[in-house]
Design a protein that fits this description.
Length: 360
């Protein structure tokens, strides 16, 4: 396979969440790499297509499932550009190059391995993963171990944070701005509530493995400068590790009560995804790290601050890890995949899959 050429063709597809036709087109391009002779199960949820590929016959419980997402965040342009060993373009690092490698490895090894191997291709990871990986898991797709090809520089990610998106809402009493004592300023109440949350979870001065809060937006319906606002809303994006027992393992109702007590205002949970954790001492992780080292990389463990689709497997007691090639600049105008890591990445995957015991 001429991977740079294939990757350039795939990167050129603007597979954003608002383009269902291009989401399917990206899927079909990767399935072309897999080629004939396999069963392709198609799924769709809320307009988001996904596919599951395995050997002909009924769907097995996979010993290993290779997972890749083909959607990207929007960009001004989608053409790929190569500069030496760097392939630039939206989705190059996150994660179209890795998806092609996973497809090629699956095509080569699925027919000869002594256990069932699956390839899971989804198109909604960038918007939450609920209509791709989560939808397939709910439909009965099962595996003993999952490798997600997100970028990692051949390090093995066994932990990623949960995601919590909430709104804080404060109400007050409108009044003329010249007589503020006659009203109650909802914006002041809201900023005090936000400050209370940030005192509990201050912005770290540098990278730290703890809960973080991003204040994404504050709004009020008030449009008059000479009026005391009667309502205001703040949108917060909270990322939390499994060690934060106030959030991890809690229901939306429990989290609502916790944040309401902390902030003193009304709270609405818009989105909640649990942290992802895989046993770093499991035989699969141990073998994958050894394969990465044999391919010339450290294979060290890594923790990611962003949420990932592995949480849908972790929630069901299935170990899932992120293991991908190198690059940088994801979601930015200078995103690139490091092509020098592609061959070692493929080698590590092959060593891992061929060295794995058929039984857990």
């Amino acid at each position: 396979m001429d991977l740079p050429a294939r990757a350039a063709e795939l990167i050129a597809v603007p597979s954003t969440t608002d383009r269902p036709g291009d989401l399917r087109r990206a899927l079909e391009l990767v399935l072309d790499v897999v080629g004939p002779g396999f069963t392709v199960e198609w799924f769709e949820s809320r307009g988001k297509p996904s596919a599951l590929v395995h050997l002909p016959g009924s769907r097995p419980a996979f010993r290993v499932l290779l997972n890749a997402h083909l959607d990207v965040v929007p960009a001004d342009a989608y053409a790929a550009r190569r500069d030496g060993d760097r392939l630039y373009g939206r989705g190059a690092q996150d994660m179209k190059v890795a998806a092609l490698v996973l497809a090629d490895v699956f095509r080569s090894l699925a027919p000869v391995l002594p256990y069932p191997l699956g390839l899971q291709l989804v198109t909604d990871e960038e918007v939450g993963g609920y209509d791709g990986t989560a939808h397939q898991v709910a439909a009965g797709v099962a595996a003993g171990f999952v490798v997600i090809g997100e970028q990692s520089g051949l390090r093995v990610v066994t932990d990623s944070k949960g995601i919590l998106q909430v709104r804080l809402h404060a109400t007050g009493t409108a009044a003329h701005a010249a007589y503020p004592w006659l009203g109650a300023n909802a914006l002041l109440t809201l900023t005090a509530a936000v400050d209370a949350v940030l005192r509990r979870y201050p912005v770290p001065p540098e990278e730290q493995w703890r809960t973080t809060v991003n204040v994404a937006r504050i709004e009020t319906g008030n449009r008059a400068v000479n009026q005391v606002p009667a309502e205001a809303t703040a949108w917060l994006d909270i990322r939390f590790p499994s060690e934060d027992t106030d959030l991890a393992g809690r229901t939306a109702e429990e989290i609502t009560a916790f944040l309401r007590a902390l902030s003193g205002v009304d709270v609405t949970v818009d989105s909640l995804g649990p942290p992802h954790h895989a046993d770093p001492d499991s035989p699969e992780v141990t073998l994958l790290r050894a394969a990465a080292r044999e391919a010339g990389y450290s294979g060290e463990l890594l923790r990611k601050h962003g949420a990932a689709d592995g949480r849908f497997y972790s929630a069901r007691g299935v170990d899932a890890v992120i293991f991908g090639p190198g690059g940088d600049g994801q979601h930015g105008p200078h995103e690139y995949a490091d092509l020098t890591t592609v061959a070692p990445y493929r080698k590590a995957l092959v060593l891992f899959l061929t060295g794995l015991s058929p039984a857990r």
